[in-house]
Every structure is written in structure tokens, then in C-alpha cells.
Amino acid sequence: MALESRERARDRVLLQLKLRGPQSAAQLARRLAVTPMAIRQHLRTLADEGLVDFEDERRPVGRPARVFRLRPEASARFPDAHADLTLDLLGSMQEAFGEEGMERLLAARHRRQLASYRSRVPRDAPIEKRVRALAALRRDEGYMAEWSRTQPGFLLVENHCPICAAASACQGLCRDELALFREVLGEDVHVEREEHLLSGARRCAYRIAPRE
Fold first, then answer.
1. Which residue in 46, 78, 88, 202 has the most C-beta neighbors within 10 A?
2. Full-model pTM
């Protein structure tokens, strides 16, 4: 296999681990329609590069299963929205304007985002259509967003955060994101963040349900 093809294959492995979380070599092989031996070779290379590690999980029956997961260093292989520049700008703005000035900047950003999102998410449509539109919008922005039906509502999952470095430095970005979803989806919808990347989860996930 040519070097470029091997790199593309390893990128597909990383993407599966990013989207679906920790998996065994057999699971990855089934999802990517390749042999377990090929997957193990890719995983060995990715582990040597410090992008993947593993843990042997005990099972009720049989031998422990070796499960592979992404290391934090793998984030560099996904879009990061110019993290270094963003952090530098945030630091400069905080120094120049202080906390009160930062809050005004975040409020202005929130207003612009809200206007943009409302132009693409139909407010009077059924909730499912609104959730689908929001997921498509976030996917376009690099969040690897997916949605699914649950009981009694929906689950919106963001498998990647292209502004993670900025959100780590400025917690108001995550606070405003949750408020943005609630305003865009409407007052007849309840939105809660169930998983949070910055709290140690592998993704951000939002439970969306009709208000009783």
C-alpha cells in the first residue's frame, strides 16, 4: 500500500474513534470493511505516533477485550479553527478590555450568531426539523454534529469542537452556546447539555425534548 493510501486509511481509523468513541480492532474492521490484521497495523502505527492508546476491558465471559481510544494529542489531526491565533487574540482582548469588556464582546458575538442561526433554523417548523437544521448548521461549522431520535425527544451530539482551545480559555463561549441553542430551538423546547468536552467527556451532547 502506498504511503498516501496508508495515511488516508489511518485517518479513517482516527475519524471512527472520534465519531464512535473507544472500539476494539474487530469493531473498527467491520465498520471500515477491512481485515482486523490491517486495522491492528494501523493502530500500532497510530500508537507509536502517540495518537491512540488502549485498555484491556474485562468481560463477563472470555478474555478481556482490548479497546482503543484517541489520545488528546489526536485533536491536532482535526480542524481547530486556528487555535493559536484565537488564544492570542483572547488574551489581548482580556488585557485591553477587562472582564466587563469581554462580556460585551461575547454578547455582541451571541447576537450575531443568533441572527445567523435563526435565518437557517425554521422557528415555526416541527421540533425534529429544527433539530435537523441545527445539526446541519453545526456540521457545516466543523463540529461533526449528528442527531438522533430518543424518548421523549432528540439527542444532538458534537463529536468535535473546532474552538476547543478558545472555549478552554474563555468559559463564556460554552455558556453562550447552550443559551444559543435554547433561543434558536424555541421556548417550546427544553435543552440540556448532558456531556461536555471541557469536563472530560469525549464529546458534547445535548438532550432536546418538548416542554410539557
1. 46
2. 0.69
